[in-house]
Amino acid sequence: MADIKVSSVYEERVKTLLEREWGMLIGGEVVAARGGETIETTSPADGRFLAKVPFAQREDVNQAVAAAKEAFPAWRKTPLVEKAARMRAFVRVLREHAEELGILDAIDCGNPAKAMIGDVGMACGGLEYISGVAMEVKGQTLPSMGENWLLTRREPYGVVGRIVPFNHPILFMAWKIGAPVMTGNTLVLKGPEQAPLSSMYLSEIMKDVFPPGVVNIICGDGPTTGDALVRHPEVKRIALVGSVETGQRIQASAAEVGVKHVSLELGGKNPMIVFPDADLDEAVEAAAFGMNFHWCQGQSCGSTSRLFLHEEIHDEFLEKLIERVKKIRIGHPLDPETQMGCLVSKEHYEKVMGYVELGKKEGARLVHGGGKPEGEGFEDGYFLAPTIFDDVTMEMRLANEEIFGPVLSVLRWSDREKVIQEANAVEYGLTGAVWTTDIRTAFEVADALDTGYVWINGSGSHFLGAPFSGHKNSGTDSEEGIEELLSYTQSKTVSIGLGAVKAKEPSRGGQA
Predict the structure, then answer these.
(1) In this predicted structure, which of 6-10, 300-304, 385-389 has the lowest mean pLDDT?
(2) With a threshold of 0.70, does the pTM exceed it?
């Protein structure tokens, strides 16, 4: 393993970017917390202090919601073509500042800079799709009832609250603006407190893109800032990308104060099932890619973190996989050649390492990783080499609980029905993958997997317009497709009377 290094160009850019007063976007202005509260953020790569950013309290949340509420009537009536033009202007701003946003995420959350700059491009593609497909969010005309015509309309909720996670800060902060805003809502968006810099920089560069109050960006933790947003009576539509535990708390908090539409995209313990007829070299590449070692150190809800290998190909596959992950270049997030960075925080590093120790105690066989990479410079950061456990069984916690780190569990199988049963045996149901050259087997297993997304001879990739959703405890509603836009609207039925008004007995089955 090579010693760690940093790009001098990126390092200088970071120094320049950090020389600013950080603020939240509320009502078209970049502001501090009203009481002066701040959160300190440090780099997980080397522990250095980076910045202090505003820590929104309840009164700041109230201010953001009030700004969104005030902006809603005019934004709702803004023609869709103008909304789309504003969204395209936002995309231009993102592309213009892609490098700054990417390197801020890299130094703040530990993901590789090259991948984070790519995240900005992915967000732009998602926003362009949303602005283009929004014309398809429309109502219906229904069969006429005598002298009445009936139609439905899709109408916005009003003020929407969205909460995004730390694993891809700018990707989610930017992309998740699209659906609620294009459908006529106004938005209060809470960024991740573990990695807040890109969201605060976004507040600065986008403040003039939308009318004041249409998009508001706040920063803070879950118990204070997030809870105040979820419980606010004016926020009737809430969305979270996060953990199952956080999703359950949000559902409970929302229910305590009102009836709200809450959508959740939550965790996963996702299976990848490899049949003996699969192309092993391609499947090995997919196993490494699907674990997201290269992008976010396995900190992804969609990672295929349970690898089910048929006993006929188990040994050969595992040997190839170990050789493949050894080639992943682990390094400082600000090194353009880095493929795998570090975990987001000390707290999260200790949680993941706790699972590594648990796996050993449970009897799983550690065949790669399990500690920091070799080489100079890794000791001060929260680096963890790609970690692979073999001989894992479904009786182990290692095979049942989401770790959210670069830890892969390998399970051996021989019976098709049993492996499907084991794949479905966890509380999660986000993604799954099946590798085989038999088309009948592929479709039968895809049908049997209780997950919201299945790859056949693939892993990890998302496609524009393809819905991404979870079954079981992995979530509610759907992201990324037109279904997401529809979820930010309410249906209204309009009855149009064409004849003279006559006194009639009320009827439930036809014209009233």
Answers:
(1) 6-10
(2) yes
